[in-house]
Design brief:
Blueprint (H helix, E strand, L loop, with lengths): L1 H7 L9 H15 L2 H10 L5 H23 L5 E3 L3 H10 L6 H20 L2 H8 L2 H22 L3 E4 L3 E4 L5 H18 L5 H15 L32 H27 L11 H18 L4 E3 L3 H6 L5 H14 L3 H6 L2 H16 L10 H17 L2 H18 L8 H16 L1
Antiparallel strand pairs: 1-4, 2-3
Helix pairs in contact: 2-14, 3-4, 3-5, 4-12, 4-14, 5-6, 6-11, 6-12, 8-16, 8-17, 8-18, 9-10, 9-16, 10-16, 17-18, 18-19
């Protein structure tokens, strides 16, 4: 078996071995396993069955990672993406009033479009056409939005008719444990502890059980039924004109997430060629887009490549065997649904708040010396949490980017793709 793995994944070529790859796979899984709890917690706010989404999350992550590992031979794991799930629930369902079945339909259609664009050179063109600073603003904005959601779900911030929002009951167990869990996750990460997010969530859960703020559901059982969400996507609902920007937003977010992760992790792993380009990029993009379609069929939001894969790379992982290992662990995870259901919302909020901090740090890379670049990116970032909509924040960013470039006499610097996307969002704001 070892000889087969050596040959198939070209372990000798990449200077690694089976043991190193397996350890790297476990490391990556522990770094991203929080998604098995956080994703169903977010999608259940849209009215979806928690247990069914838990299984769908594990299946989507397993299949996506397996395809990435076996076909593209990259040490990059996949799972339903943070940001995409927030847009699904709080943007499409709760924000625009669509059913979760319609939102799943949009995920399916966007996945099909992803596949088409991945086969054609369009996706790579789109990645390169969107200004870097807007990409950074989108990433940071999603982070700020997730942070706001985390604080809301934990009761740290509440609605206030006078000030829109204000602090809630800061003496409540949920608020205290959430903030304490977040501090623990950040501290453990700073100390280089593997699986810091999972540890923080488990500690927060134990504290919640101790004070009666959480209810014990068990540890191991047969996987919950997938029936409540399997093949439940509504394609007819996608024909509604208001779904155009929904699909477009899903496309943009997934493209940027995947591109950023592939470039970042591959560079770290030394997988780029002499020209700095990624080998087998087409296969990697197709792996991502295929996983999105499979995830929609299973019953979850868009699947994407995970930046947490960098943890496995730091442990020595270099090939697709890392992703295959992650896939196997996600399948095993399906038998721990009771444990996932035991974890309360304030524990998952601690993880969300930490993820928000990681995503928001992209603001540090903005070109602050050029206001035509930084200003629309900031508008995009703050527009997401304040409008409670990822799509509206992205749209505001594209529109202001075009407007500022044109009025500053630098219209030629604005790519054609940005004009097109800006016009689509302007039409949405004015007429939909």
């Amino acid at each position: 078996m070892q000889d087969f793995l050596q040959r198939y994944f070209q372990l000798n070529h990449y200077g690694t071995n089976v043991r190193t790859e397996l350890i790297a796979g476990v490391t990556t899984f522990l770094s991203m396993a929080y998604i098995t709890v956080v994703n169903p917690a977010i999608l259940s706010d849209a009215g979806m069955d928690f247990g069914a989404v838990f299984v769908a999350t594990c299946i989507a992550a397993a299949v996506g990672s397996l395809v990435m590992g076996i076909w593209a031979n990259y040490p990059i794991a996949q799972a339903p993406g943070m940001g995409q799930n927030a847009f699904f629930t709080y943007g499409v369902v709760l924000g625009l009033g669509h059913t979760w079945e319609a939102a799943l339909g949009a995920v399916f259609v966007s996945g099909i479009i992803f596949i088409i664009l991945s086969v054609l050179p369009v996706r790579q063109w789109l990645i390169n056409a969107i200004p870097k600073n807007l990409k950074l603003g989108i990433s940071a904005g999603i982070g700020l939005f997730l942070g706001f959601i985390a604080l809301k779900n934990a009761g740290v911030v509440v609605a206030n008719p006078a000030t829109l929002v204000s602090f809630g009951d800061m003496a409540a167990p949920g608020a205290i444990i959430c903030l304490g869990g977040f501090a623990l996750i950040a501290a453990l990460t700073a100390r280089g502890v593997t699986g810091a997010v999972i540890i923080g969530m488990l500690v927060a859960t134990v504290l919640g059980l101790a004070v009666g703020a959480a209810e014990y559901q068990g540890v191991i059982s047969a996987p919950p039924s997938l029936a409540p969400v399997l093949f439940k996507f509504d394609l007819m609902a996608v024909l509604d004109v208001s779904m155009v920007t929904v699909v477009l937003t899903m496309l943009l977010v997934d493209v940027f997430d995947t591109a950023g992760t592939l470039v970042g992790v591959s560079n770290r792993a030394g997988l780029t060629d002499s020209n700095g380009k990624l080998p087998r990029l087409g296969k990697a993009l197709l792996s991502d887009s295929t996983a999105t379609v499979i995830g929609a069929v299973a019953g979850t939001s868009s699947t994407t490549s995970y930046i947490e894969s960098a943890a496995g790379v730091e442990s020595g992982g270099r090939t697709g065997l890392v992703a295959v290992t992650v896939a196997g662990l996600f399948l095993l995870c399906m038998f721990f649904a009771p444990l996932a259901q035991t974890i309360p919302s304030f524990a998952t909020s601690a993880a969300l708040l930490f993820v928000a901090c990681l995503m928001a740090k992209s603001l540090a890379e903005l070109d602050w010396e050029d206001l035509t670049e930084s200003a629309p990116s900031i508008v995009c970032a703050i527009g997401m949490p304040l409008s409670f909509s990822i799509a509206d924040g992205i749209g505001l960013g594209f529109i202001t980017y075009v407007a500022i470039k044109v009025m500053s006499g630098r219209a030629v610097e604005c790519p054609a793709a940005v004009y097109v996307i800006g016009a689509i969002f302007l039409g949405k704001f004015l007429f939909l």
